[in-house]
Design brief:
heterodimer; A: alpha+beta; globular; B: eight-stranded mixed sheet; five-stranded parallel sheet; 13 strands; 16% strand
């Protein structure tokens, strides 16, 4: 089973689990699979069409899936998948919407 | 002027000795540092270690952009500042600290909010940009301005226990330019999907670690020593003590410098990100009854009246008259140590005065009298003349 590393900002949706073991054939299916087990993650990982959100970066090993086969990139048992969202840092209001 | 035209005094040679004796670094590396101009955007958690190490290392000119004032909640991680600086503009407090640390470097300060109108002018004079800001609109602004001006942008970001770093838009010795922030993150997360630091917080030492890495990369970019973190994206998870370095590449669809660039000038980044870069802070208020209470108890405070002289002549509460239009010119008459109540007839002009004083001079001790003179007359002293 492939290992998915959950980034700090999303761990509150995985009961603070940092690594998930997932059985799926490619990256897209892997991400969709974990949203089934942790439904609160869904809106953070998948867009309305069920595709992986464009503001997330997903790496297999050290490589960006956009340089491989994107969501279709095959996943093996020893694959390590990292989800890396953009973080802006510091301020409490970094996400306050325009009024 | 070429870097090897920069010479050192005896004091400087002694100060930088531990750099100069590193074989790969040498006097040449130190000269490059002295010749360099680095702009540090944000003097908070990341900016603190970046600024301290760059000043200590002898970077010749260091610019600091920040509009904020020091708050006591900053001191847990912003090691540039101490309790004596609370309430003071960060850039001024930072300059004092850095000048005391190394008098051989020049510190330039910009006590302003970086925006699309001033970014190119401020960034233009510098060789390297270090982005330690705290919100997405300013991240994209700094990135785009760096790319448009063709300058390397040493990036770092933190959240809770996690840090990120990279060197964006770096042109190597072969003339090849590496990826920038938009190659990595073409679009920002929509507001609401970013867990905020108010929920999350940040472990104070984390910006110390990541900011030090950022300072390291600035020094490598300037001196050409080692391999800068260009085309690579570093992340550090302090909780598990794990770090990973990913490979990142330029993208053909990058709107700044991809195959078909569509952005040729700075845009409205708050609009682009759907969120504000700077939150409007509510103005602190005091009611007429509370003011009366302060007066009766003999509390030490200053009362400022921002109405016009003819209004003051009709009725006044014994405050100092500084009409709204002249308030910025008379900021030195306003006390910074004790509480200051600002009032007008109904509370509108005094709120405006407080906003201007907070924005321009970083006042944190101003209170607006709610409802102004009229509320005071109604609630406390009905015998006074209404108008």
């Amino acid at each position: 089973m492939a290992t998915v590393i959950i980034p700090t900002p999303l761990r509150k949706f995985t009961n603070n689990t940092t690594r998930l073991q997932v059985n799926a054939g490619n990256v897209g299916d892997t991400i969709r699979e974990i949203t089934i087990n942790f439904p609160d993650l869904k809106k953070h990982l998948l867009d309305e069409e069920g595709g992986v959100r464009s503001f997330l970066n997903i790496f297999i090993g050290n490589d960006d899936i956009r340089d491989l086969q994107n969501e279709k990139t095959p996943v093996k048992d020893d694959t390590i998948i990292s989800i890396v969202p953009a973080i802006a840092g510091g301020k409490e209001n970094s996400s306050s919407p325009l009024k | 002027m070429s870097a090897n035209n920069f010479s050192f005094s005896r004091e400087e040679l002694a100060r930088y000795n531990r750099h100069i004796i590193i074989p790969e670094f040498g006097l040449e590396g130190q000269q490059k540092l002295k010749a360099a101009k680095v702009l540090v955007i944000g003097s908070g958690g990341l900016g603190s270690p970046v600024l301290l190490y760059l000043a200590a290392a002898g970077v010749g000119t260091i610019g600091i952009v920040d509009f904020d004032v020091v708050d006591d909640s900053n001191l847990q991680r912003q090691v540039l500042f101490g309790i004596n600086e609370i309430g003071k503009p960060k850039v001024e407090a930072a300059r004092r600290r850095l000048e005391a640390l190394n008098p051989h470097v020049e510190i330039k300060i910009y006590n302003t909010h970086l925006n699309s109108g001033n970014a190119l002018d401020i960034l233009r004079d510098y060789d390297v940009i270090a982005d330690g800001t705290d919100n997405f609109p300013t991240r994209y602004l700094v990135n785009d301005a760096s790319v448009l001006l063709n300058k390397p942008n040493v990036y770092a970001s933190i959240f809770q226990f996690e840090g990120q770093a990279s060197v964006f838009n770096y042109t190597n010795k072969k003339g090849e330019t590496g990826p920038n922030y938009r190659d990595l993150y073409p679009v920002p997360p929509p507001p609401g999907l970013v867990p905020s630091c108010a929920e999350g917080g940040v472990l104070g030492v984390l910006p110390g670690i990541i900011g030090s890495l950022q300072a390291l990369e600035v020094i490598k970019v300037i001196t050409g020593v080692g391999e800068p973190l260009s085309g690579r994206f570093y992340i550090f998870d302090a909780l598990n003590f794990e770090s990973r370095t990913f490979n990142i590449k330029r993208r053909d669809d990058n709107p700044l410098n991809g195959k078909n660039p569509s952005i040729h000038e700075l845009i409205d980044y708050e609009q682009f990100c759907g969120m504000r870069a700077v939150e409007e802070k509510p103005i602190k208020e005091i009611t007429a009854k509370e003011l009366y209470d302060w007066q009766v108890k003999g509390k030490k405070f200053q009362l400022i009246d921002v109405r016009e002289p003819h209004e003051f002549a009709i009725v006044n509460l014994g405050g100092e008259l500084i009409p709204l239009a002249t308030v910025l010119d008379n900021a030195d008459k306003i006390d910074r140590e004790i509480d200051v109540v600002v009032h007008c007839k109904m509370g509108g002009r005094s709120a405006k005065a407080i906003k201007e004083l907070e924005d321009k001079f970083g006042f944190r001790n101003l209170y607006n009298l709610k409802g102004g003179v009229l509320a005071y007359i109604d609630e406390v002293q009905p015998q006074l003349t209404r108008y």
